[in-house]
Amino acid sequence: MAIKDKLYSLSEDIIISTYENNSRGILSQKIFNIEDVNIEIQNKYPDLQLSYSIEKPSLISNENSFESIVFRGFDNNYNFENLNKFILGSRIQSSLSNKEIIISKSLSDKLKVNVGEYLSLYFQTRKNQKIPNIRSYKVLDIFKTDFPDFDNNYIIGSAESLQNIYSWKENEFASINISVYDNSKIPITEESLSKLKSIEKNNLSVKTVESKYQNIFSWISIFDFNIIIITTLMILVAIISVIISLFIFIFEKIKMIGILTSLGLTNNSLREIFIYLGIDIILKGMIPANILFFLVSVIQNNFKIIKLDPNDYYINSVPFSIDLVYIISLNSSFIITSLIILYFTFVSITKYTPSFNINSK
Question: Considering Cα of 126, then 129, then 135, then 140, what sign does the dihedral take?
């Protein structure tokens, strides 16, 4: 899975929360007058899918170890389809119960805990609390995202569980999570939501997934730019190689062109012959190259032969994208460019007299 796709799956497209939550980096402070915000959003944007969540810091432990984590609790409206992409076991069909959590593979290894076993979580619900609130949770499943910041710090559970621990009402949450079906409309939707009266009145923040993970998206954009440069250079080198090959091919046949012309063969007939021969040469190189690309892509995507360090690249192997539209467009452009070069080269040669072409060396 591409890095951008992972980010869109791990975080909702748009998150509404308090500015205090943004400064803390954890969605722990409740949104006041959340019902007013919900009503205005649903009235003006009925197509948007809303879910709600709470994040609270916690200590997680068992007989083997202690770990500091963030408990991310979702309400019953949360769509687990995105999270299921990272689940190592069975798919999560619906919401989690108050006593169930999902932990990462890295935490599972550190704590030496498996699916079906129980963990104790410690919560501090008020300042200067000497004895923390302790809750026991069953590990329902394990996920692996290859994002160290997420895998090492988050567990997934029920928002209702946190509401009970912190004495929040059932309609009180720390964030409103909004899913936009078309990613290209996220910036426009964010701008429109920011102007809602209930958002401005309650001094709430509206952030997109790109602003939440700004550093990663900036890092990806640098990679994209480098890829464009490298791809452009590779295409130029390939085109130059083809041009040289076609030049050699035609210049080797100059005498033959002169002889055939002197025997009465028209330039149009000669041009057709050379174009067919040029297409034959191009396809003999292009078809094996495309077959090799598809084979390498399928093998790499299925067997992950070329590995990457997730701590550096957020993915564990090199992904190969098979975009048929892009591949067909690139191949077509390459063939057309080669034929244009072949045509004009041939035209320049046929301008000379047959005797000149026959006597050329």
Answer: positive
- What would the pLDDT profile of 187-212 be if each residue is shown by its tens digit? 999 999 999 999 999 999 999 999 98
Helix (H, G, I), strand (E, B) or coil at 112: coil
Q: How far apart are the C-alpha atoms of 346 and 175, rounded to whole Å?
A: 68
Residue 167 DSSP code: T
Domain ranges of the chain: 13-212, 216-359
Number of neighbours of residue 214 by Cβ within 10 angstroms: 12
Q: Which residue has the higher pLDDT, 1 or 355?
A: 1
Residue 188 has φ and ψ, to the nearest 5°, of -65, -40
CA distance 278 to 250: 9
Return all residues near 84 (Cβ < 8 A) that are at least 6 apart.
91, 92
DSSP label of 343 = H
In degrees, rounded to 5, the angle at the alpha carbon of residue 351 between the alpha carbons of residues 349 and 354 is 80
Q: How far apart are CA 86 and CA 6, in angstroms?
A: 9
CA distance 105 to 115: 11
Distant-in-sequence, close-in-space partners of 256: CB < 8 Å, separation ≥ 6: none
Task: List Cβ neighbours of 36 (8 Å cut-off, separation of 6 or more).
Answer: 198, 201, 202
Mean pLDDT of 100-122: 94
How far is residue 35 CA from its own chain's centroid? 33
Share of the chain above pLDDT 70, in %: 96
What angle, rounded to 10 degrees, do the helices at 254-262 and 324-350 form? Answer: 60
Q: Indicate the DSSP class of residue 128.
A: T
- Are 168 and 159 spatial neighbours (Cβ–Cβ below 8 Å)? no
- For the chain, the distance separating the N- and C-terminal CA atoms, rounded to the nearest angstrom, is 57
Nearest C-alpha neighbor of 12 from the set 174, 239, 245, 232: 174
Structure confidence at residue 143 (pLDDT): 96
pTM above 0.85, yes or no: no
Contact 157, 102 (CB under 8 A): yes
